[in-house]
Amino acid sequence: MTTLAKDEVIKSDILDEATKLFRHYGLQKTTMEDIAKAVGKGKSTLYYYYKNKEEIFDAVIRKEKNIIFRNIQEDVSKEDSAVKKLEAFTRSKMREIKRMTTLYQVVVSEVRSCNELELGIRRNYDCTEAEILKSILQYGVITGEFPNYDQQELDMLAFLLVNAQRGVETALIMESKLDEMSEKMDFLVSVLMNGIRRS
Amino acid sequence: MTTLAKDEVIKSDILDEATKLFRHYGLQKTTMEDIAKAVGKGKSTLYYYYKNKEEIFDAVIRKEKNIIFRNIQEDVSKEDSAVKKLEAFTRSKMREIKRMTTLYQVVVSEVRSCNELELGIRRNYDCTEAEILKSILQYGVITGEFPNYDQQELDMLAFLLVNAQRGVETALIMESKLDEMSEKMDFLVSVLMNGIRRS
DNA sequence: TTCAGACTAAAAATATTTATTAGTCGAAAA
DNA sequence: TTTTCGACTAATAAATATTTTTAGTCTGAA
């Protein structure tokens, strides 16, 4: 294997600097020149590596999202019962959200007004969440922890879990009670869990 | 008892017309002149009966909110088990929301940007919801349907229920899937219910 | 006591100018 | 050939000035 292609290194540099800047100043207030300066290159050089600003932002979000979900997946896979997996999922998600509050805010709030992007990213994000949840639920059905929900019911359950959690998340963020988040989420999950477990 | 005081009649007329207009055009796009014209009075007359526009809007919201919650309370009180009460609560709330989508939108979305009002109304609205839920839960503890949750746990449960439901509501409204609302809510409530019922 | 018309001050909408910034291009450096 | 840059433009956003609308007041009439 040869050394990493030079252009891949630079692309990755650009992404790293862009990530920092977006996190600090948000999407709108970070200019292409800011990014170029941070990388130590001219502005037009960025356009040699990326089509435009949106492509950079997309790449940043995709990368960060992947990190989040890799971490979550890792935590989830450590547990061996579906119930514990679900608890791990929530705990892990909370931790990730706190760790990346700024970028999360960008995705959740700033981007919320930037219609084109919003839908894509937010939906994509939720889909991944729902996917993970669904796989956990499916696992629970297999292990016999949960009753024999059919595919449609599992979809609905995953949908409900994602959005119920988000409802609580939003309320706590709006009242800036992030510190109560864990406790309340634990309680919510334990209730939901017991609910799912019945028949 | 004498005939209803004349000014009470007019105040009520103003409220009725204002309600219609707010429902049709929203808070911002309804002017005091519009209301006055609809009532068939001059604009300044409105100020004889109400301090300002906000007071009118407040009164409209309070009145509508009372109707909603009276209807919900009525439906809830018909049931005699806590579980059925909770189901009735959700079903009834869904129906009320659909019935008043427009005004609900005003409260939920338009007012969301109108900071001063937002907090007051939204919080007030949620409080009432949470109060009803809490009383249902308390009832369930008394009847033995639910385990012996203490006061703090009941508060938390009510908070969770309100916001979990709102999360799902919001998602469905955003995707304009109001028709799936009942089905999904039923499912959510049944899950939550079973969760609450355990120990 | 109840109302209206004329009024004001504040806010909202509009138009206009100015400043930034995303993205292009052709040419130079590596 | 691959990578970089400086100079340029067109579009977007920010700032400013201008007009219109509208909430709320005041005086006085019925």
TrEMBL record, chains A, B:
Keyword Transcription regulation: yes
Start-end of DNA-binding region: 31-50
Residue ranges of every copy of the HTH tetR-type domain listed in the record: 8-68
Gene Ontology MF term list: DNA-binding transcription factor activity; transcription cis-regulatory region binding
UniProt KW Transcription keyword: yes
Gene3D superfamilies: Homeodomain-like (1.10.10.60), Tetracycline Repressor, domain 2 (1.10.357.10)
Keywords: DNA-binding, Transcription, Transcription regulation
Protein name: TetR family transcriptional regulator
